[in-house]
Amino acid sequence: MGAKKLSVVATRRLPEVVETRMSELFDVTLGPDDGPMSREALAAAMRNCDVLVPCLSDHIDGALLAQAGDRLKLIANYGAGVDHIDVATARQRGILVSNTPGVLTDDTADMTLALILAVTRRIPEGLALMQAGTWKGWSPTAMMGGRISGRRLGILGMGRIGQAVARRAAAFGMQVHYHNRHRLRPETEAELEATYWESLDQMVSRVDVMSINCPHTPSTFHLMNARRLKLMKPTAVIVNTSRGEVIDENALTRMLRAGEIAGAGLDVFEHGAEVNPRLRELPNVVLLPHMGSATVEGRIEMGEKVLINIKTFDDGHRLPDLVIPSMQ
Ligand code: DGY
Prior knowledge:
Blueprint: E1 7-10, H1 16-25, E2 27-30, H2 39-48, E3 51-53, H3 62-66, E4 74-76, H4 87-92, E5 96-98, H5 105-120, H6 123-132, E6 152-156, H7 160-171, E7 175-179, H8 186-192, E8 194-196, H9 200-206, E9 209-212, H10 226-229, E10 237-240, H11 249-257, E11 263-266, H12 277-280, E12 285-287, H13 296-314
Parallel strand pairs: 1-2, 1-3, 3-4, 4-5, 6-7, 6-9, 7-8, 9-10, 10-11, 11-12
Helix pairs in contact: 1-13, 5-7
The structure holds (2R)-2,3-dihydroxypropanoic acid (DGY).
(2R)-2,3-dihydroxypropanoic acid (DGY) binds next to loops.
């Protein structure tokens, strides 16, 4: 492209070092504060910029894309998940979409293990006791949780993050099982010592811990629906660091309340920040505010990926992290 700097709109505030580098390279407009951009502001930005840098709080559907200006050629998403963007319609309108895979794998996998431990070892309950100042000292029968070593972990979605969860879980002595659209190569399966289940139902009914690590797509929406949740052992727990939409949150809440599932660790929710209030009341549930990938290092690396994708586009080359519609 020519010497004129690309006009880039970032919808949210990004780490300072990322904003600084972005402003050096491009003609950047940053959101005035860190709130999500209104739909009107998003539409206006998409009419006037060359590149939009949204994130998961921006719902870029067909109706918004229809209002985009001819200038808009790239949506460089700040994040790996692109379920908030209608990638197929963007592509039809000649708008490329990129994302930031790989750099949040370890952080998200770490948080998955943290949730498994938090739920099974009752860490938030212990913390609450200490913070309330009501702890009376050690007792042989107090705060007994479960041992994760030896338990069967079922990973739903064995992409980068699922595999990173598998490695960590094996180090904790868990037995790894997985269900994925495609079976892993035999050497990867052997390295991870992971057992493949073609039938998700069969895996769900046999594991002690279910971990959701698949993206949200039309085919994974409510994959863990009421019928499938009922297949879980009553002693099993479920953790989700992917997208809330994969689990039927109301059905899960009902079953947790009824003691039909032993516990849950949730970093993501079906309706974003609108968390089912009944979930908040349950002692066997650990809730986190979608912070699975929230490390300083990860957020900066996500920004670097965004910059590389925009720069590569500017230089007229194929984007390293181009999202193709069939991936959704
Ligand atoms: C992503 O990148 O999709 C993550 O969920 C953001 O935290």
